[in-house]
Write a structure and sequence with these properties.
Elements lengths: L1 E8 L3 H13 L5 E5 L4 H7 L5 H9 L2 E6 L12 H12 L3 E8 L2 E8 L9 E3 L5 E3 L5 H16 L4 E6 L5 H13 L7 E6 H10 L6 E4 L1 H14 L7 E5 L5 E5 L16 H13 L3 H16 L13 H15 L5
Parallel strand pairs: 1-2, 1-3, 3-12, 5-10, 8-9, 8-10
Antiparallel strand pairs: 4-5, 4-11, 6-7, 11-12
Length: 333
Amino acid sequence: MLRVASLPGDGIGPEVCDAAVRVLGALPVDVTVEEHSFGGRAIHEDGDPLPAETLAACRAADAVLLGAVGLPEFDGAPVRPEQGLIRLRGELDVYANLRPAKRDGVDLLIVRELVGGLYFGASGRRADGSAFDTCEYSPHEIERVARRAFELARGRNAFVTSVDKANVLETSRLWREVVSGLAGDYPDVRLEHMLVDNAGLQLVLDPAQFDVILTENTFGDILSDVAAGSCGGLGVAASASLGDRGPGIFEPVHGTAPDIAGQGKANPAGAILSIALLLDELGQPAAARAIEGAVTGVLDDGARTPDLGGTATTDEVAEEISESLAISMPTTS
């Protein structure tokens, strides 16, 4: 039996998580899902966005399903929901964040380093009113995520674009040096380097040119949203955060969208497609492909939430996808 820890989080997180769990339940897969407090809800309940009980449950699970975290009420507060997410990534050491982006003629994968760089460096305020955030990378941190990107490219079109800002940043010069040094271990994979500003431009002008994009934490955070915008929007964007051992974290790329929370307007496709990534990672490729096919079919048939120009509710989209799966992969009694 597969064990999934569900962390619905804040805003529309609970709605899209519920939809994803419903779709998971429509598959002939032996799985149990347990919900745990996380993010803003956990701060209200426990004063901590990542309670010890939740972290223990995540460590014991085969995978973690996450909705979204963050609420305006915590902006500028000393304890914020996002701190729980950063801590969870670090505690599980899920250093490789995979963010696929697909549409007609486009099939790219962003591999973002997830537990280093600015988000994990020293930061603070000085007495003179200035602030600082430190970006640091070690060769080891770069090498392990780069190898993950090269290996993934071998199963795709064997092409890696490593994105950096080597004309300005010393960390990017180290990044380019380490990635270039690994290329000889993967002679079957073509490697090119691209500056991050140009990469953003190219993702808008011609995203079909890319196969696997490898980049550091901050650049990957930004570029993955650009890629999602070029391929249908954040509502259909999924992600997987993986390490070398232990559970991965699977979540939609979108935020908490508190302005539409509780209204049934949230697009569940990103969360549902994250379940497909989860099943792929846990050795259930047939179920993963079935979910992808069901999502594509339902959206093509017109069951779309308002962000995609439709009038369907979150529940209606999830129900149609579940019904499609019940036909394509019927459960056995």
